[in-house]
Amino acid sequence: MFEIDQELMRIGVSLPENLLKRFDNIIKKRGYSSRSEGIRDAIRNYIVDYEWMGEEEGERVGVITIIYNHHQRGLNDTLLEIQHNSLGLLGTSFHVHLDHDNCLEVLLARGDIREIKRITEEIMALKGVKHVKLTTTSKTLD
């Protein structure tokens, strides 16, 4: 799947300090020899997850988990608008205030996986959204 003997490319990445510290702690705990090794592994996992999601088709039930900054101007309204525009696809939602700045929103979805993924990716692109995770399964587990 991934070619090992490829020429390495040097890139620059800007990250918030707290995110880099957390990443460095994980790298240390997992025994990586460098940040680059950890970043390569994270990118590989991201690609595998994205490609796996691309292979799904048909009817699914799923959970969209969102963590976002509720102080981001207009974000709450946009999330509600997405939910209202997706009636029949998005059902129940669950909202929790995690701390002064962050909320957790859980949306239950049922329908065509392509539409569920489209909505998930629309949410991912919103400014102030920090994390989005889509978990799906088949509607029928015969």
Automatic annotation (TrEMBL):
<feature type="binding site">
    <location>
        <position position="103"/>
    </location>
    <ligand>
        <name>Ni(2+)</name>
    </ligand>
</feature>
<dbReference type="Pfam" id="PF01402">
    <property type="entry name" value="RHH_1"/>
</dbReference>
<keyword id="KW-0805">Transcription regulation</keyword>
<comment type="function">
    <text>Transcriptional regulator.</text>
</comment>
<feature type="binding site">
    <location>
        <position position="97"/>
    </location>
    <ligand>
        <name>Ni(2+)</name>
    </ligand>
</feature>
<protein>
    <recommendedName>
        <fullName>Putative nickel-responsive regulator</fullName>
    </recommendedName>
</protein>
<dbReference type="InterPro" id="IPR014864">
    <property type="entry name" value="TF_NikR_Ni-bd_C"/>
</dbReference>
<feature type="domain" description="Transcription factor NikR nickel binding C-terminal">
    <location>
        <begin position="61"/>
        <end position="137"/>
    </location>
</feature>
<feature type="binding site">
    <location>
        <position position="84"/>
    </location>
    <ligand>
        <name>Ni(2+)</name>
    </ligand>
</feature>
<keyword id="KW-0479">Metal-binding</keyword>
<keyword id="KW-0533">Nickel</keyword>
<feature type="domain" description="Ribbon-helix-helix protein CopG">
    <location>
        <begin position="9"/>
        <end position="48"/>
    </location>
</feature>
<dbReference type="Pfam" id="PF08753">
    <property type="entry name" value="NikR_C"/>
</dbReference>
<dbReference type="InterPro" id="IPR045865">
    <property type="entry name" value="ACT-like_dom_sf"/>
</dbReference>
<dbReference type="InterPro" id="IPR022988">
    <property type="entry name" value="Ni_resp_reg_NikR"/>
</dbReference>
<keyword id="KW-0238">DNA-binding</keyword>
<dbReference type="InterPro" id="IPR013321">
    <property type="entry name" value="Arc_rbn_hlx_hlx"/>
</dbReference>
<dbReference type="InterPro" id="IPR002145">
    <property type="entry name" value="CopG"/>
</dbReference>
<keyword id="KW-0804">Transcription</keyword>
<dbReference type="InterPro" id="IPR050192">
    <property type="entry name" value="CopG/NikR_regulator"/>
</dbReference>
<dbReference type="GO" id="GO:0010045">
    <property type="term" value="P:response to nickel cation"/>
</dbReference>
<dbReference type="GO" id="GO:0016151">
    <property type="term" value="F:nickel cation binding"/>
</dbReference>
<dbReference type="GO" id="GO:0003677">
    <property type="term" value="F:DNA binding"/>
</dbReference>
<dbReference type="InterPro" id="IPR027271">
    <property type="entry name" value="Acetolactate_synth/TF_NikR_C"/>
</dbReference>
<feature type="binding site">
    <location>
        <position position="95"/>
    </location>
    <ligand>
        <name>Ni(2+)</name>
    </ligand>
</feature>
<dbReference type="GO" id="GO:0003700">
    <property type="term" value="F:DNA-binding transcription factor activity"/>
</dbReference>
<dbReference type="InterPro" id="IPR010985">
    <property type="entry name" value="Ribbon_hlx_hlx"/>
</dbReference>
<comment type="similarity">
    <text>Belongs to the transcriptional regulatory CopG/NikR family.</text>
</comment>
